[in-house]
Amino acid sequence: MKQSKSANPFDQWSELLELWHGLVDVEDKRFYQLLAKRFNRPTVELGIGDGRVAATVAPDYGVDFSPVMLEKCRKRLGTSCPYLIEADLKLYHLPERAGFSYAPLNTISHIEPNDRETVFRTILQNTKPGGYFAFDTIVPDLDKIKMRDRAQIYRGRTNSFAIYEVSEVKSYERQEFVLHGIIESIAPNGEVTGKRYFPELSFFYMFPEQIRSLVERTGWQIESVWGDFDETPLTEESRMQIWLLKHPESR
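User: That's the sequence. What structure does it adopt?
Assistant: Structure tokens below.
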């Protein structure tokens, strides 16, 4: 049972995520595609990863700090690949300011709490006055987080492999849990022949009121807040939160 070492855990998780996303169809691709059509270009994907969402949205730029992910993105998108920037979201700089940026699939929740304000201000600096920024993340359910602490959750399988996820609470004070990934290799007779373990990824959940405070502190205006990709309003029953922010035109 091997676990490769990498300074950037997303480098190794790129393999697991590629297999995982091949098993499920997340609604975010079509959502961000339709959202991008409402706003001026250039369009930028923050945390572009292997290009899963970009293949549908077709942004002009993509930012990610995992070189392995970016290489997979180039291979996936080929000649339609956007201009890619290898950089941390705290530090990136675009050749031209964005008309619309988006960060799909909980990208924002992998940011250290102490870095959030810097990231949101950096995105603001890279956005045209009057431009937009959208992102999604879960609405925390503390009962579910406690129930799943260290439990192995089945995520999908084919005839040759199965994927599992384990979440482990690190700190309720920091609102942090870590994700562990597991791939089981399966023989034609159904026997499990091996397991691969992937390094932990930190995930920092945020309640809606915390995001609202963050947005206000960093100079954004709230345009819309939804509770699903069908743009239904965010409610106490919502399992996810999607925020659409606007760069104040006066800045």
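The first helix runs from residue 9 to 21.
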